[in-house]
Amino acid sequence: MINKLIRPELKGFMPYTTNQANYRVKLDANESPFDLPMSVRKKLADIIMEGPGLNLYPDTESIELRKTLSAHWGVDMEGIVVGTGSDQLIQVLINTFVGKGDRVVCPAPSFGMYKIDTIIGGGTAVEVELKEENNFEYEIEEFIQTAINEEAKLVILCTPNNPTGNLLSLRCIEKICINCPKTVIAVDEAYAEFADESAASLLPRFENLIVLRTLSKAYGLAGIRCGYSLSNKAMAEELSKVKPPYNISSLSQLVAQLVFEARGEIESQIKYLTEQRAYLSRELEKFDGVRIYPSGANYILVKLPNANEVAKELERRGILVRSYSDPVLSKYIRISVGTKEQNDILLEELKSIIRQA
Ligand SMILES: *Cc1c(COP(=O)(O)O)cnc(C)c1O
């Protein structure tokens, strides 16, 4: 019965699931290996003991957090919207601009939610291929042409791109904003702290631009579900009409605020992880038949023979990496950069697996 009631466009969908295997080392979801800084834990504990006010609804406008973000970015707080992860903001953005039959242009391979949220929203996703033979680089002319031909409402760009790790230059983002003035251009910068580059600097010049950021990756806060968008005020106002009320819990707002105040510590973690990325890349490159793709993020895309089998064997040994069933990506695994100790465990196991193969 349910089967017959469901919207036809959702028929092929599968629930989002994650690998529940037991592990020693978790390098499959691009999470930070660092839990909440000790200084933040202490402050949080004190606030909780004083009475956190959880009997009350949270601040639905996240005013304190938006003030902090505004000061950090030099973006008016009226141009900032907070979501339960940037995941929610992707959905809010699509639901704000994309109606039945409207087109959303996005890269492929990239983050799967762009297409899923577009279909759920009643729109049509038009994917522009990032080609392996071109190192998955964005072909920006093709994006512009596709957006124009399809009369796209929204173009979503992801830089560094997940899972390929490559960057899209500010010059290219600028070009697409100029050439597609009737299209909203969203730049998903979930990993941009590891590349130290942001399209936020272009915001004063383009009213069609919106930048999505998250605290889930570099900030080590995947567990609190908090992300935000940077745009002009008019765009943020429209998003705020669609965003569910009280979306961010009080505890999440509080933790986000405290961690942002402890940025110094996060910055040294980012520096450490980018050094580890270089180390891990160098070591992976030494393997015969293994190809790595340069990454501006906290993960590395690796091409290797029997990628899916290698991932399974790593899992048997307690190391989780991301593998793909999608045919385009089935030759690859994506490895999140961990601590030196975690990276060394991975490298040791990989050595013995590849030698045996
Ligand atoms: C992880 C990720 C996000 C979403 O992160 P949230 O936890 O929802 O903030 C968004 N975009 C990309 C490309 C990601 O990899």
Note the topology.
Blueprint lengths: L1 H4 L19 E3 L10 H13 L12 H11 L6 E4 L1 H13 L5 E6 L4 H8 L3 E6 L10 H10 L4 E5 L11 H10 L4 E5 L20 E6 L12 E4 L2 H10 L7 H12 L1 H23 L5 E2 L6 E5 L3 H10 L2 E5 L8 E5 L3 H17 L1
Parallel strand pairs: 1-11, 3-4, 3-5, 5-6, 6-7
Antiparallel strand pairs: 2-8, 7-8, 9-10, 10-12, 11-12
Helix pairs in contact: 3-9, 4-5, 4-8, 6-7, 10-12
Bound molecules: pyridoxal-5'-phosphate.
The site of pyridoxal-5'-phosphate has 13 residues, from helix 4.
Describe it.
The strands form 2 sheets. Strands 2-8-7-6-5-3-4 form a 7-stranded mixed β-sheet, sandwiched between helices. The mean pLDDT is 96. α4 (85-97) packs across α8 and α6 (140-149) runs parallel beside α7 (170-179). β5, α7 (170-179) and β6 form a beta-alpha-beta unit. It contains 12 helices and 12 strands. The chain has 357 residues and is α/β, with parallel strands linked by helices. It has helices at 2-5, 38-50, 63-73, 85-97, 113-120, 140-149, 170-179, 233-242, 250-261, 263-285, 307-316, 340-356; strands at 25-27, 80-83, 103-108, 124-129, 154-158, 184-188, 209-214, 227-230, 291-292, 299-303, 319-323, 332-336. The protein is globular and about 60 Å long. It starts with a helix and ends with a helix. Bound molecules: pyridoxal-5'-phosphate. Residues 30, 85-87, 111, 158, 162, 188, 190, 214, 216, 222, 227 line the site of pyridoxal-5'-phosphate.
